[in-house]
TrEMBL record:
Residues 395-405 have a biased composition (Low complexity). Residues 477-561 form the DUF7939 domain. Residues 1-25 form the signal peptide. The keyword Membrane applies. This is DUF7939 domain-containing protein. Residues 334-348 have a biased composition (Polar residues). The keyword 4Fe-4S does not apply. PANTHER family: PROTEIN BATD (PTHR40940:SF1), PROTEIN BATD-RELATED (PTHR40940). Residues 329-348, 395-432, 561-583 are annotated as: Disordered. The lineage of its organism: Bacteria, Pseudomonadati, Pseudomonadota, Gammaproteobacteria, Pseudomonadales. Keywords: Membrane, Signal, Transmembrane, Transmembrane helix. The chain crosses the membrane at residues 437-458.
Amino acid sequence: MVSNTGRLNAWLGLAWLLLCLPALADGASLEARVDRDTLYENETLKLTLTGTMPFSMDISQLLNLSDMDLPEPDITALQDNFEIMDRHQKYSLRTVNGESEATIAWTYQLAPKRTGTLSIPALPFKDAQSDPLSITVQSGNAPPQQGEAPSAILEVTTDKDAVYVQEQLVVTIRLYYRGNLIRGELSEPELANVLMEKMGKQREYERVRHGERYRVVERRYVIYPQTTDAITLSDIRFRGRVRNADQGLQFLRERADKVTVPVSGKPDGFSGRVWLPATSLEISQQWDNARQTVQVGDNIERTVTIDALGLLGSALPPIEPSYPEALRSYPEQPDTTADVNDRTVTSSRTEKTTLVAVEPGTVRIPEIRIPWWDTVNDRQREAVIPARTITIKAADDQAAATAPTRGDSGGDPAPSTEQPSSEPPASEPGNRESGSVWFWIALVLGALWCMTLALWWWRNRDHTGPEARPARPDDERALFRELLAHARRGDGNTLQLLPAWACVRFGRDDLHSVSDLLAVHDDPSLEHAIRQLQEHLYSERVDAGWSPEPLVDALRRLRETAPSQEDSDDSLPPLYPQRLGKL
């Protein structure tokens, strides 16, 4: 009830003053005073301006209160040296011996903007002005009174005294305060040439220091210097208001002590291509097929991952594995992640690649070796994935390819050991007779052979059937229809059916893969269509509008331009006709 009565009296006094202000006479005065003239830069001072004015009451203004302006001093020049933390004002009226006088008091809570000797200039008020005041501001925080704990403490710490360029540095800011915090602002580090991220959420807890229980606000930041310039944390500030145990308001201004961390360049002994300072770094791989033997046309998915502590994901380099020509690679977009918790940064980079076996043989996938710098033990280490050997076999429907046959004798004829004579041998009558007999025998046999061939040709001239030439497999058309069906669907079986159909169509047995077919038939449009299909199957970067029509058209052109065994009339007749034995 007392409080409500006080508010009512204050409002009545203000209303009364507003009624009287239009009739205020000249002769106003303004007095300035402070509660201290020496303070530390983390402290505040109270400035009180008191203005006194004579007045005469004008009842005619009762109905025009909204048109009345309450006068106040011009404090623009005051803000050059001081920050106004809070302000309020109060009014009083009194009449002595028939003379009425109004008094207005403006109170400002000021925080110095710098150290040294600061001036509170003369401040104007109506036709009066205040006297200037001089204030001395000392650097640093005010020491606590004897036996009294400080009202607030602001400290900045780092987890390392020195770092390398691009090495992780954790900065912790803690604000300790007593009482109930009503309002407060805690600044964040402002640094140039660094990458900085906040670590986790702000923590709040309680601690005992100087024998008093404090409430603590903690913030953590991770910083990665990008140059060798030293990191200087020098402008971390807090300002706010707390309500003390006696329910009084207290203004707090704290500034943390400066912290400097030197930054070194990359060590000369580091041999890696990319500088990677980390707490730990590992590289691993996964295969969707653990077999050491695959077939031409098989797909193998390989996943390689780098895991690191103390590095951002953006700092992890591309893995860039190399593969032999027998394996065609289709890499996907890399996946990079980083988890910034309240202790450190955990990051990873994952690269997936689909490998397609295109040539038979034994291939070796080289090792992957990534040098990195161990910041805990201050030495170079290497993360390694060992090499792997894979055997690629021909596809099952192509494994029947045979090697070229030799002559009927099964080998090359042995060279003759007889040496030609420098003189012709002497003719003997017996030898001459035997030679002439064998001559006539050979002549008769040759004539019989020619007659046999002529008779065979005459009997077969009008009814050359399927036995007279190699038979074409009946399933060529069916195989081609199946090939087109898979091509239209855009599935992986297309790449396996294509060489199998080509072997039948071209009458060859050496087309084991798509690469073999493209090597024999130089068709840029077919090669381009096959590349598009492979990207459609194995790459995430493929255009969503892929169409099978270019591949289908290329396959049809290939079938029309390439003669099959059925269409070929230029093949030589067999050396030994199949029906010769029936004569």
